[in-house]
Amino acid sequence: MTKLNQAYGLDNALQNVFPSPIIASRVPTTSDKSHRLGIMWVNKATNAVYVLTSVSAGSATWTIVS
Predict the structure, then answer these.
(1) Do 6 and 14 meet the contact criterion of CB atoms below 8 Å apart?
(2) pLDDT tens digits, residue range 12-57?
(3) CA-to-CA distance for 56 and 16, rounded, in angstroms?
(4) What confidence tens digit (pLDDT) does each residue in 45-59 have?
(5) Strand 5-7 relative to strand 15-17, pairing
(6) Taking the domains of the chain in order of start, what are their residue ranges?
């Protein structure tokens, strides 16, 4: 499991911050499984965006966002 990022806020001492998207020149594969569910992957070559929706049996499922 990936550790949550935290930042100091004005009203809260610490708050969870979602990680920045992954920017790459390729599409994600089933082998790209060491990320947190919900992370976004941007293929800068095609301007396509994917979201990691599940990791099961050592295989990642990336869903394209339209």
Answers:
(1) yes
(2) 778 777 778 999 999 999 999 998 899 999 999 999 999 999 999 9
(3) 25
(4) 999 999 999 999 999
(5) antiparallel
(6) 21-65
